[in-house]
Amino acid sequence: MRALTWHATKDVRVIDVPDARILQPSDAVIRVTSAAICGSDLHLYDVFGPFLHRGDILGHETMGVVEAVGADVRRVAVGDRVVVPFVISCGSCYMCARGLTTQCETTQNREHGTGAALYGYTELYGQVPGGQAEYLRVRRVDANAIVVGNELPDERYLFLSDILPTAWQGFRYANVPAGGSIAVLGLGPVGQLVTRIARHHGVTVHAVDPVVERRLMAERYGATVYDLDREAGNEAGDEPDEHHAAGEGHDHDRDDVIGRRGRSELAELIRDATDGRGPDAVIDAVGLEAHGSPGTAFAQAAVGVLPDALAKPLMKRAGVDRLAALHFAIDLVRRGGTVSVSGVYAGNVDPMPMMTIFDKQITMRFGQCNVQHWVPELLPLAEGPADVLGLEDLVTHRVPLDRAPEMYEKFRDKEDGCIKVMLKP
Ligand SMILES: NC(=O)c1ccc[n+]([C@@H]2O[C@H](COP(=O)([O-])OP(=O)(O)OC[C@H]3O[C@@H](n4cnc5c(N)ncnc54)[C@H](O)[C@@H]3O)[C@@H](O)[C@H]2O)c1
Ligand SMILES: [Zn+2]
Ligand SMILES: [Zn+2]
Predict the structure, then answer these.
(1) Which ligand is nearest to the CA of 420?
(2) Distance between CA 316 and CA 219 in Å, rounded?
(3) How many CA atoms lie within 13 Å of 97's alpha carbon, on the beta-carbon side?
(4) What is the pTM for the complete model shown?
(5) Structural domains in the chain?
(6) Of 342, 371, 374, which is best to mutate to test ligand 1, by the most ligand atoms within 8 angstroms of its C-beta?
(7) Which residues lie near ion ligand 2 (Cβ < 5 Å)?
(8) What is the pLDDT of residues 139-186, one digit of tens each?
(9) CA-to-CA separations, 16 to 57, 95, 171, 340, in angstroms, rounded
């Protein structure tokens, strides 16, 4: 079968690999009808090389039709249309019983001290072959697969595998009071869905992203959007470039659009718009940045080229994070508010503004999404006739699997208006 495989940092290829097949009685094999590229795949593409192996099949947002089931499978049958959560859980351990499927005690990767196994996500999470492929071996299918109807298009269901519950968890963890406000940092697919979910709950949204078409999409769903200048004006008192301040040469020619500013200026603007306090919660949908400050770019590039034996400890201990978005979130949130982090972070020694966190009495919540826990409340929204979250209006690129390598680059570089890629094997 054909599959998208990792070969080296910034080098993924679609090649022929052995067919997915049943190896355990709890397995199924699906014929993949759609697989998406996720912002998390970009971390694998750019930074996590030391934990990947040549030939690893990537992809963790997958749906398809069941082709074969193992002897113990009861809930799912050949011919069923299923969505596969990116988290592999057992459904019955202490953690799963509490809805914490990302911490499943049956599939945890104890060797690396990490949580539940994930599809297509490095040796840290079990080195499980992923779903950007013609076929996928689905593990523990009874505990995980989401069986869906046949009428609606894949777009309505595919995002249940990851980004829809991720955005939902980010919003729920943000604990926004009724009629309250949030800031969303990052308007990739996750930030887009956070915005829509928040608006659906009647919450005011201030959304920040440096990419114009992503801001325009969020604006269509009711967010007030802000352009971020990542290079300039990040410290208090810094002045943005003149042409930036005037908003010239940017996005649209409208006066009401909040033009490119540094973080401290944006914080002021958003505070002004929230009674001077800052939003009740900030949701970080950025995560570790693969591009940005020269220092980080260097460290990340170094990790990409160092031999694994050197790079692994560097990544685990020193980390290669750029915490810009997280620090911004801490600065921006109102006193007593919540910072809810959906973006993926790694690295253990990056400095955190402990005094601010303590003094402002901030609640912080993090984590991989417990997909299985949220699906029952999300499924009716996903397949409701009104498509209230606009799931059919997120994918910008639908391409054959063979074009996946080119789309990794486009999605990373945010070229050609690329916001969400759907691969059609
Ligand atoms: N917790 C989970 O289970 C889970 C699941 C899926 C994705 N994620 C993570 O969520 C994050 C977002 O995923 P995505 O698919 O939307 O990816 P993405 O890379 O398309 O989105 C990130 C967005 O952040 C913007 N950005 C970069 N720096 C910024 C800054 N300093 N301030 C504001 N915006 C900034 C980028 O322009 C981009 O639009 C990634 O870190 C991904 O790994 C986590
Ligand atoms: Zn993902
Ligand atoms: Zn479990």
Answers:
(1) 1
(2) 38
(3) 4
(4) 0.91
(5) 2-161+370-424 (3.90.180.10), 164-288+323-365 (3.40.50.720)
(6) 342
(7) 38, 40, 162
(8) 999 999 999 999 999 999 999 999 999 999 999 999 999 999 999 999
(9) 11, 37, 40, 40
